[in-house]
Design a protein that fits this description.
With 138 residues, the protein is an alpha/beta fold. It has a single domain, classed as Response regulator (Rossmann fold, 3-Layer(aba) Sandwich). The chain has a five-stranded parallel β-sheet, with helices on both faces. Helix 1 crosses helix 5 and helix 2 runs parallel beside helix 3. The longest helix is centred in the N-terminal third of the chain and has 13 residues. The radius of gyration is 13 Å and the shape is globular. The relative contact order is 0.17.
Length: 138
């Protein structure tokens, strides 16, 4: 069982992601803000983080940078969950490293589960920039 940190400023989306993670048999820990997510990750590093890219106080790319700096090798794999086009996500996060995946909002729960399962099956370090784009159809 993995510990998955969910970071999104929209409550209904956090709850939907929590439901998917719990149905997969994993532990879901949620934060409405990147600052709170960072505190939670430092206290007990997760195995994976689902992170919204665009949030009011700090974007997901900056949170990813801070997690890397604060946790080093214990930094979790990160999947960006965003309505932002994946090319823009790649541009924003290119200076901090490759995410474990990308899921387009709105997402289908099966697509999210597939991307999470794939990311958890891979080692956290040395990931290639390969986005697993989930479609809203299905």
């Amino acid at each position: 069982m993995a510990r998955v940190l969910i970071v999104d400023d929209t409550e209904i989306l956090r709850r939907a992601m929590e439901m998917v993670i719990r149905r997969m048999g994993h532990t879901a820990v949620s934060a409405a803000s990147p600052r709170r997510a960072y505190e939670l990750a430092l206290a007990d590093p997760p195995d994976l983080a689902l992170v919204d890219l665009l949030m009011p106080e700090m974007d997901g790319a900056e949170l990813f940078r801070r997690l890397q700096a604060g946790l080093g090798e214990r930094c979790p794999s990160v999947i960006f969950v965003s309505a932002t086009p994946r090319e823009e996500v790649a541009r924003r996060v290119s200076s901090v490293g490759a995410p474990a995946g990308y899921v387009t909002k709105p997402f289908h729960v099966d697509d999210l589960a597939r991307v999470v399962a794939t990311a958890l099956a891979r080692p956290a370090q040395g990931l290639a920039l390969a986005f697993a784009t989930a479609s809203a159809s299905g």
